[in-house]
């Protein structure tokens, strides 16, 4: 039986509410952070950057939900796109430091001088322009996803195989980015940022604006994702997810459908990564770790797969839990996370959103008897 | 020259002895107690050729800091309470007063090493002579040339002779080229070329570069360098191939269990690496247990650990299948998430119990060390793992081919529904297959504990490579797993010298990803109707 039947997922009214809530919350928090220090409603810089981080993670979760929830591709490497977007933004922020680095060199970042590089490698060209960086944030993950997806979907790599090669992809990238020779700061990654577009990154105002921007972009991504899955193309996606071969026999091209949503999703992840870097202030190869990608999948699972809202909710809740847990009981966080993985898959296959629906509509009537065609489709 | 000097000293000793009987006198040894290190060093060098019967013992005692002097010039060798007169070799009843050790500095040590090698050259035992020749080969000290010539003139043993010739050649070539010595140097180049090795290469390369050298000598040296390089490279390739095989066998051990569960149940066990980690910890616990109870059995503790690790991990595997996996039946991707969660819990549990740091799993004496085969080193623990992996694979083949369980597992792998219809209890097969897979991971853990750090993170470092092996090799075919493990192991190690370890790993990952695009079901896909639409 497939628990993700089309009915129920078609109505995305919640998405609009969710998008609005995100914007309002981000805006409210941003305003609170601008209140004077003594005010009881004042939000500290730590809280603001934490919230920004959660929202950036929510974008990653949203992108995972698009491919996992709607195209049935369990990606274990989406953090790679997130990190690539982060690195693209990091390059720009690195160049913005200019001559204020430790070595005071206006044209080369500190780590390159440290490695006695003489000039910028070609892929850093233009990184001092914000527009180019913004383009790269979307283009690099998009192109990588395009090439990878084109190869994989064309040859019908699917299921566990696909999951494992996505994991291999992010693992390979992690190893590569750890290399000093690659020109991205090796172990330490990119950090010590000062400005963005001339505004001081540590100023409360900049932080507040960044938080609002993140909230707005997350809301926009939510709406865009809703538009995609609510369209005819979205129907096709779900069809591919539930019965790929039947869709193919009907004359559609599942590989192209999957490729489109895959690239779109990678771009959202890249955008999330870029926003993450501006607010967290560091990007290093650890972001590529396979564990991060798997964690982002569990956010989606906790929130509810294939619901869009659930991804955002799950990312925020799980990360909030992580922050609290690691502060109070650092020993037990991994137990908690592990149990979350197990219990969600065992007892809550549709996540919090599924639970919510269940509460609202206690006995969901089966509209059509579901055809189990897993036997013919995937083994 | 040496002989002449020592002859003088001997004469002096004789005369001194005759003139001043009963008093400490100047002899071949007396320079040793000098306050000036260079005089001591000169005496040490002279002693080797002096032919004095006690010279060997005195030099050895000096090296071991057992040589003492008294203010009146007496020399004594003292080991704890026993004391002998260094000159005569006779024990003395009463330890004399005011014994002062003779101090060594680098100069004296160098002289001592040379002197001992020189003495070794004329030792009656061939192996000591060979050792001495080896030592001189590495030193190429021109002062030893006479001693080498002398040794060559009396040496009968062929091995020792060859080595002496090479030592002489190295010594000759290490000197700056003189007039009319071209033939001797050509001869030396040939002799060194035959010796091979990095040391010879260094000398020869120096000769080939030197402008003072005659052209024929330089050409000959250049040719010799290339020939040695070729040999070194060939051995290097073999050495890498061995490392590759060794890593491949570890991967094989790690991946077979994974491949079996994936084949039978279609699920990837993300906690497989943690099973390996637990296997390694079981090894450690067995070792500690045996050390505490029956220390005599300690060397074979590792053998005891093999079945224990298999049993513990196997039982854990069955437990996991019954308690977790079976509820996720038909949802392979969610199994992946659940087992990942399990792996986090297992890691943290081990971390809480045993601590986050590495534990020291002992390698028994019979597994440590290495044997040199030609120009390569075969480390025994890696060799043992290679053999062990072969045995495990063989045993697994037997289980799959010759036992009812194996038959049932193969049937379920090929077509679960049909197998169930034929009366096979598929849940039982699932549980046992999962247990078998986990048990195999435990065995891999025992093996890995001998070559790698054992910490709670151990599993993480192997899991991705094992996945690669499984998807590369294809499911349900152990030969595929074998081929994939060896290909990945060898591939990585072959690429390593040219592009570095990390780049080699990246290259392998990328190659596998690309390969999967061409062959989505691996190298040896299961064929047949039940597999895929």
What descriptors fit this protein?
heterodimer; A: 379 residues; mainly alpha; two-stranded antiparallel ribbon; 16 helices; 68% helix; 2% strand; globular; disordered N terminus; B: 533 residues; 3 domains; 4-stranded antiparallel beta sheet; two-stranded antiparallel sheet; 20 helices; 6 strands
Task: Report a brief summary of the structure.
The complex is a heterodimer of chains A (379) and B (533). By secondary structure, chain A is mostly helical. Chain A contains 16 helices and 4 strands.
Query: What is Rg of chain B?
Result: 34 Å
What is the makeup of the main sheet of chain A? 2 strands, antiparallel
Average pLDDT confidence of chain B is: 83
Largest interface: A-B, 51 and 50 residues
> What percent of the residues of chain B sit in helical stretches (DSSP H or I)?
55-70%
Strand order of the largest sheet of chain B: 3-2-1-4
Q: Helices and strands of chain B, in N-to-C order?
A: HHHEEEEHHHHHHHHHHEEHHHHHHH
Strand residues, percent of chain B: under 5%
User: How many strand units of chain A?
Assistant: 4
Ends apart, CA distance between termini of chain B: 92 Å
Q: Please estimate the helix content of chain A.
A: 55-70%
Distance between the termini of chain A: 14 Å
Rg from Cα of chain A? 21 Å
Low-confidence stretches of chain B: 7-25
The low-pLDDT segments of chain A are: 1-9, 364-379
Whole-number total of structural domains of chain A? 1
Question: How would you describe what is shown here?
Answer:
The complex is a heterodimer of chains A (379) and B (533). Chain A is an all-alpha fold. Chain A has one domain. Chain A contains 16 helices and four strands. Chain A has helices spanning 6-9, 13-34, 45-71, 78-97, 110-114, 130-154, 159-178, 204-230, 232-242, 244-249, 254-280, 290-303, 309-328, 333-347, 351-360, 374-377; strands at residues 190-191, 195-196, 199-200, 282-283. Chain A has a two-stranded antiparallel sheet with strand order 1-4. A two-stranded antiparallel ribbon of chain A has the order 2-3. In chain A, strand 2 and strand 3 form a beta hairpin. In chain A, helix 6 (130-154) runs antiparallel to helix 11 (254-280) and helix 8 packs antiparallel against helix 11 (254-280). Chain A is globular, with a radius of gyration of 21 Å. In chain A, 49% of the residues are buried. The termini of chain B are far apart. Chain B is 68% helix and 4% strand. Chain B is mainly alpha-helical and 533 residues long. The model of chain B is unreliable at 7-25 (pLDDT under 50). In chain B, the strands form two sheets. In chain B, strands 3-2-1-4 form a four-stranded antiparallel sheet. Chain B has helices at residues 2-19, 37-50, 55-63, 106-121, 126-139, 145-154, 158-174, 182-195, 197-209, 215-265, 272-293, 301-323, 332-354, 380-402, 404-414, 416-421, 426-448, 458-473, 478-499, 501-518; strands at residues 67-69, 75-79, 82-85, 100-101, 370-373, 376-379. Chain B is elongated and about 100 Å long. Chain B folds into three domains: 2-107, no CATH class; 122-213; 243-457, no CATH class. At the A-B interface, helix 6, helix 7, helix 12, helix 14 and helix 16 of A face helix 13, helix 18 and helix 20 of B. Chain A: It is a multi-pass membrane protein. Chain A: This is Amino acid ABC transporter permease.
């Amino acid at each position: 039986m497939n628990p993700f039947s089309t009915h129920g997922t078609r109505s995305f009214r919640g998405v609009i509410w969710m998008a609005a809530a995100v914007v309002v919350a981000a805006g409210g928090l941003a305003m609170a952070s601008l209140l004077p220090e003594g005010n009881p409603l004042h939000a500290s810089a730590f809280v603001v950057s934490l919230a920004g981080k959660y929202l950036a993670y929510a974008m990653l979760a949203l992108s995972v939900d698009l491919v996992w929830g709607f195209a049935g591709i369990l990606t274990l490497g989406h953090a790679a796109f997130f990190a690539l977007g982060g690195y693209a933004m990091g390059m720009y922020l690195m160049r913005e430091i200019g001559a204020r680095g430790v070595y005071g060199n206006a044209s080369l970042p500190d780590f390159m001088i440290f490695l006695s590089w003489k000039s910028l490698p070609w892929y850093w060209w233009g990184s001092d322009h914000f527009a180019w960086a913004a383009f790269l944030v979307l283009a690099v993950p998009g192109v990588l996803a395009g090439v990878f997806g084109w190869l994989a979907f064309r040859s019908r790599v699917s299921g566990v195989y696909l999951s494992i090669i996505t994991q291999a992809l992010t693992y390979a990238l992690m190893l590569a980015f750890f290399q000093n020779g690659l020109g991205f700061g090796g172990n330490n990654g990119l950090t010590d940022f000062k400005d963005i577009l001339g505004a001081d990154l540590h100023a409360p105002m900049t932080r507040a604006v960044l938080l609002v921007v993140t909230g707005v972009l997350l809301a926009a991504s939510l709406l865009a994702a809703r538009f995609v899955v609510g369209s005819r193309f979205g129907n096709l996606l779900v069809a591919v997810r539930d019965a790929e071969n039947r869709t193919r026999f009907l004359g559609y091209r599942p590989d192209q459908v999957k490729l489109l949503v895959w690239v779109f999703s990678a771009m959202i992840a890249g955008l999330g990564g870029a926003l993450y870097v501006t607010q967290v202030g560091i990007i290093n190869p650890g972001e590529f770790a396979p564990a991060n990608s798997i964690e982002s999948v569990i956010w989606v699972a906790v929130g509810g797969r294939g619901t869009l809202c659930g991804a955002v909710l799950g990312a925020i809740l799980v990360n909030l839990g992580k922050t609290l847990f690691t502060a109070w009981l650092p020993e037990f966080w991994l137990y908690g996370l592990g149990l979350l993985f197990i219990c969600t898959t065992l007892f809550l296959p549709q996540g919090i959103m599924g639970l919510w629906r269940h509460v609202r509509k206690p006995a969901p009537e089966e509209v059509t008897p579901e055809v189990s065609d897993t036997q013919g489709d995937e083994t | 020259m040496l002989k002449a000097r020592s002859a003088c000293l001997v004469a002096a000793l004789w005369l001194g002895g005759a003139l001043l009987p009963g008093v400490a006198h100047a002899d071949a040894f007396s320079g040793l107690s000098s306050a000036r290190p260079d005089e001591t060093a000169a005496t040490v060098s002279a002693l080797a050729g002096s032919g004095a019967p006690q010279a060997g013992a005195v030099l050895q005692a000096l090296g071991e800091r057992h040589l003492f002097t008294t203010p009146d010039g007496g020399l004594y060798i003292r080991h704890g309470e026993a004391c002998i007169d260094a000159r005569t070799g006779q024990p003395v009843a009463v330890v004399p007063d005011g014994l002062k050790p003779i101090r060594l500095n680098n100069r004296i040590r160098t002289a001592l090493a040379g002197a001992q090698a020189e003495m070794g050259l004329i030792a009656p035992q061939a192996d000591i002579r060979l050792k001495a020749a080896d030592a001189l080969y590495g030193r190429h000290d021109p002062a030893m040339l006479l001693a080498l010539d002398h040794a060559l003139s009396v040496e009968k043993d062929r091995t020792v002779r060859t080595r002496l010739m090479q030592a002489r050649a190295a010594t000759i070539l290490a000197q700056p080229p003189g007039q009319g010595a071209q033939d001797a140097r050509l001869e030396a180049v040939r002799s060194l070329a035959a010796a091979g090795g990095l040391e010879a290469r260094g000398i020869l390369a120096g000769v080939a570069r030197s402008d003072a050298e005659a052209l024929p000598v330089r050409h000959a040296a250049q040719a010799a360098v290339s020939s040695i390089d070729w040999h070194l490279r060939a051995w290097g390739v073999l050495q890498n191939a061995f490392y590759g095989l060794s890593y491949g066998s570890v991967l094989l051990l790690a991946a077979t269990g994974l491949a079996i569960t994936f084949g039978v149940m279609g699920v990837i066990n993300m906690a497989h690496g943690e099973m390996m980690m637990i296997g390694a910890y079981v090894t450690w616990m067995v070792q500690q247990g045996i050390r505490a109870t029956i220390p005599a059995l300690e060397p074979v503790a590792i053998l005891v650990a093999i079945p224990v690790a298999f049993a513990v991990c196997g039982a854990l595997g069955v437990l996991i299948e019954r308690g977790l996996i079976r509820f996720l039946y038909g949802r392979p991707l969610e199994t992946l998430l659940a087992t990942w969660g399990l792996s986090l819990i297992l890691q943290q549990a081990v971390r809480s119990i045993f601590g986050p740091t590495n534990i020291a799993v002992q390698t028994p004496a019979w597994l440590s060390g290495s044997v040199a085969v030609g120009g390569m080193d075969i480390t025994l623990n890696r060799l043992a793992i290679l053999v062990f992996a072969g045995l495990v694979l063989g045993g697994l083949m037997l289980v799959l081919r010759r036992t009812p369980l194996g038959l049932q597992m193969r049937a379920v792998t090929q077509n679960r529904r049909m197998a169930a219809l034929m009366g096979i209890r598929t849940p039982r097969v699932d549980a046992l297959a999962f247990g078998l897979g986990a048990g195999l991971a435990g065995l891999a853990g025992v093996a890995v504990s001998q070559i790698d750090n054992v910490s709670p993170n151990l599993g993480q470092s192997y899991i991705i490579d094992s996945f690669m092996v499984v998807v590369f090799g294809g499911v349900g075919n152990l030969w595929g797993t074998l081929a994939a493990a060896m290909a990945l192991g060898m591939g990585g190690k072959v690429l390593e010298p040219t592009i570095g370890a990390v780049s080699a790993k990246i290259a392998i990952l990328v190659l596998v990803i690309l390969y999967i695009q061409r062959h989505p079901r691996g190298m040896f896909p299961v064929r047949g109707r039940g597999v895929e639409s």
